[in-house]
Amino acid sequence: MTQAARERILARIRSAVEQTPDVPPPTRDYLTAHTRDDPTQNTERLHRNLTEYRAIVHRATPTRLPTLLAERLAAQGAQSIVVPDGVPDAWFSACAIQRYGDRGPLTPAALDAIDAVITGCALAIAETGTIVLDGGPDQGRRALTLVPDLHICVVRTPAQIVPSVPLALPLLAPDRPLTWISGPSATSDIELDRVEGVHGPRRLEVVLLETEG
């Protein structure tokens, strides 16, 4: 396209829109949440909605967590895991399993050969059953949670649970690589045949870690 042709097109666009009225500012009088911000209710609602999305949900205390992780990895047949640098070593005190850090970093092919990833999260949204990752130290880069077949995510309750999306957004940095997770990765074709694991983990397990806020 020549510069003259470009200018003619832009001139026609300007002429077409110059008489249009200004767009009114959006109204912000909608509800930011549909339920009371109660920590116990938020946890129960998140648990229920995660289950609706076919995630497997567990409850644990910090003392119980290492044993639970070891049990779940064994139950899923995992022989190896990748762990972001910011995840506490104490979580794996009961795990006799090959553990990788993301040094190098690991290539997609190397990640594909690893059975599971265990991470924390940025926050979780009760009303939608959504977990949000922002690439923080206990979550790592996005590829870690997209390539391995099993993702076990630890959510600290009640501190990391918010009631709704409008209340979650101000807590998230817009310049972070946000990943929003609502259940295992899944899609369906035109005949509605569900296929899991197409663009992320085929299996999602969530541990609600019962800590003080």
Automatic annotation (TrEMBL):
Q: Which InterPro entries match?
A: FTHF_cligase-like_sf, LUD_dom, NagB/RpiA_transferase-like
Q: Which Pfam families does this entry report, sorted A to Z?
A: LUD_dom
Domain called LUD: residue spans = 112-209
Q: Where is this region: Disordered?
A: 17-42
Instruction: Give the top-rank taxon of the lineage listed in the UniProt record for this protein.
Output: Bacteria
Signal peptide from the UniProt entry: none
Q: What is this protein called?
A: LUD domain-containing protein
> What organism is listed for this UniProt entry?
Streptomyces albipurpureus
